[in-house]
Design goal:
This protein is α/β, with parallel strands linked by helices and about 400 residues long. It is about 40% helix and about 10% strand.
Length: about 400
């Protein structure tokens, strides 16, 4: 056997990509605003996580530029040794105050945060229990911990209770997403907290898609459910050598940290941004429901549309792209086989005109392709025309 043998086993979507349905690694020529330039065309951006529209806010950009002038373009080391700037500690203190915690740790990326937190807290002999839809970074963090890993059915607190009961006296760490990034649904935190407390388990919530979006003041999923004191945070992570993703990664550059600090200030000073985000989100939920789309019961600005086959999903994606709309395609293993999605994210920066254009396009294309009632489904040979990408 050769370790390279597996390289010939390509994803089934490759044939569609080669046929012109190139939905991945699209090249941007502009900042991540409500509209973007992608591969020479202007598109309404529904593929980003820029929920409050702050990624290109002039105040955020100016804060990043000022940090570059003051601190340079990189930190040249890890936080543990020479890479801690006063800027890092300041944003950690501000985040802690905002989240009503004693302290916070700022990782270089969300992926590293999950790897560092889970592997830092759980060790060999412990048990990490994950939702079956947990993000890949949560799964990888659990693997890095060398703990036993168990799964429970998605958002099923009764099944979580069953799994916890099977762990005996082992130390237990439950890890869930607050908002699930593919389908936009919320973890049932009240029932999960109850199960954890019943079995003496600790709980970690990855709130990458909830912070700034959910809760009366934008503090995320725990605030949304009134459970901010029930999610565990531990100082131990700053000093333990097992938190390798924090100690052995280059610390975040000053520009990124300053941008986060400014965005956090705007989030707190301008609740109207969150109000606008939810106004757009509720309108989209209402209208797509009226049209007959299956949006999987999303409760957030992440709006999936269940399409089904890869072929039909790619045709839907390309038709939207040709109509000036940038969306993402979600394929197995990110979703179940036969459950391919068009994944959209709406933001506070989208105007009423953007929303009207998107809704009109979705309805027209959805009916033409048979994704919603109103027209017969396209034949398979119509769905996959082998023509060059427009």
């Amino acid at each position: 056997m050769d370790v390279f043998d597996k390289c010939s086993q390509v994803h089934p979507a490759k044939a569609l990509v080669d046929a012109g349905f190139d939905a991945f690694y699209r090249v941007m020529q502009s900042a991540p605003d409500a509209e973007v330039m992608a591969e020479g065309r202007r598109l309404v951006m529904l593929g980003s996580n820029n929920y409050l529209g702050l990624a290109s806010d002039p105040r955020v950009k100016q804060a990043a530029l000022a940090a570059v002038h003051a601190y340079g373009t990189g930190t040249t080391g890890s936080r543990l040794l020479n890479g801690t700037l006063e800027l890092h500690r300041d944003v950690e203190r501000r985040l802690a105050r905002f989240l009503r915690k004693d302290d916070a740790i700022f990782y270089t990326s969300g992926y590293l945060a999950n790897c560092g937190v889970i592997a830092g807290l759980a060790h060999r002999g412990d048990v990490v229990i994950l939702d079956r839809h947990a993000h890949a970074s949560i799964v990888d963090g659990a693997r890095l911990s060398y703990a036993d890993v168990k799964r429970f059915r998605h958002n099923d607190a009764r099944d979580l209770d069953r799994v916890l009961a099977s762990c005996g006296d082992a130390a237990k760490l439950v890890v869930v997403d607050g908002v699930y990034s593919m389908e936009g649904d919320l973890a049932p935190l009240p029932r999960i907290v109850e199960a954890c407390r019943r079995h003496g388990a600790r709980l970690v919530v990855d709130d990458a898609h909830g912070l700034g979006v959910l809760g009366r003041e934008g503090r995320g999923t725990a605030e949304h459910f009134g459970l901010e004191d029930e999610v565990d945070v531990i100082e131990y992570l700053r000093c333990t050598h097992t938190n390798r993703a924090f100690h052995f990664a280059a610390s975040p550059p000053a520009a990124a940290v300053a941008a986060v600090r400014e965005a956090l200030a705007i989030l707190q000073e301008q609740p109207a941004l969150r109000t606008r985000l939810w106004s757009v989100t509720r309108r989209v939920h209402r209208e797509l429901g009226r049209m007959g789309f299956d949006t999987l019961g999303t409760q957030t600005p992440i709006v999936p549309i269940r399409v089904g086959s890869m072929e039909l999903t790619f045709e839907f994606w390309r038709s939207l792209s040709e109509d000036g709309i940038f969306v993402n395609v979600a394929l197995p293993p990110a979703v179940q086989v036969g459950g391919c999605l068009i994944r959209m994210t709406f933001t506070a920066a989208h105007t009423d005109a953007h929303v009207e254009h998107v809704l009109a396009s979705l309805e027209r294309i959805g009916r033409r392709l048979g994704v919603i009632p109103g027209a017969p489904p396209m034949a398979r040979e119509q769905v996959v025309p082998l023509r060059a990408s427009a």
